[in-house]
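Continuing from the previous page of notes. For each protein in this section, the sequence appears first, followed by its structure tokens. Read the first protein now.
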Amino acid sequence: MIVDRSVFLMTSANPNTAAFGTAFFTGRDAGGRAYVVTCAHVVKNVGGTDAVHIGGKCARVVAMGSPDGADDIAVLETDVPGDALPLRLGQARAGGRACTVIGYRKLYGGVRQARAIDGVFESATLTTEGRQIAGWNLRMEDSLPDGYSGSPVLDTVSGEVIGVASLSFAAGPGAVGQELRREISQELLAYQSAAGHYRQGHPDPGVAADRQSIRDRPGPVARAG
């Protein structure tokens, strides 16, 4: 399943910090080091660059945009399971297409569960701190709960990641997804390239079929902290 092989719970190393979010696996470099992508503001909320846990393991921030700006994206190096499935970063496409957002929500206490939420994405221009960037307006079947910041926005047809969920509107099932263009991802991954040639992940042949089956299946349960 994508939800337990590609998408991971992001928490704080400080057990007293309740903030959490989502990160997704994008691949390994030539040295075998694994990298995940999330939102920069989630890194900030869990306590900063020295306090990030991915899947319960320490993570190191290698590139980070502004938590309050248009480049609200971060890349982290961490340990992932050997069978982790990297998600492919895709090119922007026209709007009006089906999408799936996979993230972690709070069940009770310190227990979190991953869940896929379906919807449709439309092209949009996002403005933050006076700067405009390309992005998506997401019309989801359900509101994105707390914890979905950093979640991958998947084009349901191609299976590619076309954005990162960065803000959920409490008033309804809408959300904003920051477009993850190749030029942005390459800029953020420059640190990795200096250490070795980055190998972007390619989808497993079974991913398309797996994606169709995850809608009605609950994801893995994890305990924060």
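Done with the first. The second protein uses the same format. Note its length before scrolling.
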Amino acid sequence: MWSGRLTFTCAAVVVAAIAVACGDGDSAPASPSPAPGGEETKASSPTPVLGDKERQVPERTGIAELDAIIDGFMLHDTKPLWPLLRYTILPCTHAGGLGGPPGCRPDQEEGTPVDVMPFSGCEFGYYRPHEFELILAEVVQDNLYGVYRATPDARFPGEYVIVLFRESADPEMEPPVVAIEVSVDEGRIVGVNATCFLTPEELVEQHGLTEPLFLPDGTDQTPDTTY
């Protein structure tokens, strides 16, 4: 079973320079002293110091909703991602077993439509919103590797694939880093595949992700996988 870290508020600091004239309340402010050559010097405007979340986010892919999802993962913040989730509606079942339809609660009839998100973490399953929120809280802590146009080989159907990576929880059984694949369709997250044994490079190769749309800092974010 895939394991993770289950588990900033930044404020803007504005520095202002205010010139205070000496004298009584009726006195006019002193004029600036002329610089050599007869020209007056002008005080430079202070530069605001902004918190991380208030800096202007650069354009990533030019696709607004996809960029919003990317920003959420780059900031490791689930809040902007909540409205960008698209759950699938499927009939539930009282039959047990992994990989099948979502299970019904005891108070639900067989076949009751329920909202679920497909998630694969070594074992596939459908997770209800309150369950997937906990999964997303783990996944959002991972690091962004790249964003690609999806192919039919992606784990879940969609238009785009966001590839993340995390350090292995069990280096003896897994590679040092493991890839996570987030499928995005029509500006919404529609499924998450937390691979157990694939590095980001291997996932990109196996799923034929040959069209990158965004790579952090415009460089290959391949972590060191030598061991």
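What the second structure shows: Residues 60-218 form a domain with the Nuclear Transport Factor 2; Chain: A, fold (CATH 3.10.450). Residues 3-57, 221-227 have pLDDT under 50 and may be disordered. We return to this in next week's lecture.
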